[in-house]
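re: ur question from yesterday

yeah so i grabbed the chain u mentioned. its 291 aa long if i counted rite. heres the sequnce exactly as i have it in my notes:
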Amino acid sequence: MPSRWRRWGSGVLLVSLLAYAPVVLTKVILYAYPTQMGMRAGLAAFLWSMTAWSLVTVLARPSVYTPTEPLPVCVTVKRSNGAPRWCSKCESPKPDRCHHCRFCRRCIVRMDHHCPWLMDTCIGQRNYKAFVLLLLYASLFCIYALETTVRACISLRIINMPTTWIVLLTLVLFLSLVLTPFLGFHVYLMTHNMTTLEFIEGMSHVRHKTSENETRAQLQRLLPHTLSRRYYVYHVGALANIRQALGRCVLLWWLPIGGPALDLTYPINEAEFHAMQAELQSRDASGAPME
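ran it thru and got these structure tokens back, copy pasting raw so excuse formatting
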């Protein structure tokens, strides 16, 4: 499917879900909870508003890299001549943790993944906080709608539910089963300071650049190895990792505003980094085969 149609199709789907779910849930609350109407409707409105706000923020804050400032000292080296990473498609350098998205045709800072369900939007450093909050509030809204509707059916002994209730139950049950594990996965990534791409690819290619004149033989250790364990090179402590994703102000973590600046440098875990390099060097010395 062409990207334009995929973008507009996902946009129509998102708007339809955001419009349908709260309307039907409000009808359920008005019918089944006359004494708890204000509390339940208020909580539903809050979760829906935060979901919509987070979605708009994800779409409005792209993480595109524009090479308008000097490239900082890089940790990641991939080129055979020892030079910093370079994007042949954008014809520009690529900072650490920056990847070229073949769908967006741009380099994305701290790229996590490209999401076709969010109007073909890349999730990167500037909108990652809003993306995590979107998963959180959407999951809570779906779980709340599921609990509210199921309890209404049980308490009122409704056997033949209205079609709109059945559709709502189906939607929120499906989304709960999808979004909640996805949220848990991203909480794990956030607390370990990893992106989805880094989780999939591993970190065996990361090391300090030491010389512009390193030979190709010396740089062979940058090729992927089967390492004995996963190394968390950017893991600098759970709290520090979360602050890199959600911002330094804890009071604003629950709001899809603020967050980290479009920074190009990242602190590394020296112990993990040197342990990984020691294993790579020992494999080089022993002549272990590359994968």
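noticed a couple things. Residues 210-224 have pLDDT under 50 and may be disordered. also The longest strand covers residues 99-101.
anyway ttyl
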